[in-house]
Amino acid sequence: MRKNDIGEIFFSLNDVTVKVPLQPVSIRDTLNSEVHFKNSLEVVGISELPALFYERPYYYRTSHTSIAGHEDVIPWPSFGERLDFELEFAAIVGKKGINISAETAHEYIMGYTIFNDISIRDYQRKDMSTSMGPSKCKNFSHGNILGPCIVTSDELDPSNIRLQARINGEVWSDSRSSDMHYSFAQLIEFISKEETLYPGEIICSGTMAFGCGLEINRYLKSNDIIELEVDGIGILRNQIIKF
């Protein structure tokens, strides 16, 4: 611990344990990158995006009860062989609202954090075959990761920041938030239509272009160290281990 000249106190990261920055009330993850969506569909032999993608945002709710944080070990789940990361960041709702316009949406964002939802790709194909959307492929203990901190909304312009994913120090993904088809303001406007948003809810950016192993045909292995870095927020680091 040290103090600067005006009495502010600083702690070395070597002396503290960084915990999950919040327990979210809910998590809505979006499908928001045209490039990522096209790449993902091509894996299953589909060449064109559905027209609805350009008409309104896609999103689904995922588990908010088994959250991991920075430096937490992520246990390899007992089912599935192809595990993947997803390079995203998220806006955190700061006040209650309904039918929020895109023009006033910034008033409802208290800050931003990094988000990584570990995905079981071989299990995901089974989930998606039901036309019900993601299920167990994205809902398991420590599968949704937030951190390392929250940057308040007055400190970050989310419109064109760099995001990078590294596996064991090797860059796998390098993108910018300008890849988002819908801005956070547009997402909030759509999601809050006839539905109340509450403080502590999280709205995710969606996976960035080439922001996961599925798009480059590379998957995680036991003991891999995943680092997601977002300019202005920091680095979210985790190791995935098959016990």
From TrEMBL:
Single GO MF annotation: catalytic activity
**Pfam families given for it?**
FAA_hydrolase
Q: Which Gene3D superfamilies match?
A: Fumarylacetoacetase-like, C-terminal domain
Q: Which domain of life is it from?
A: Bacteria
Domain (Fumarylacetoacetase-like C-terminal) spans 29-240
Q: Which SUPFAM superfamilies does the record match to this protein?
A: FAH (SSF56529)
**What is the name of the protein in this document?**
2-keto-4-pentenoate hydratase/2-oxohepta-3-ene-1,7-dioic acid hydratase (Catechol pathway)
- Species source reads Brevibacillus centrosporus
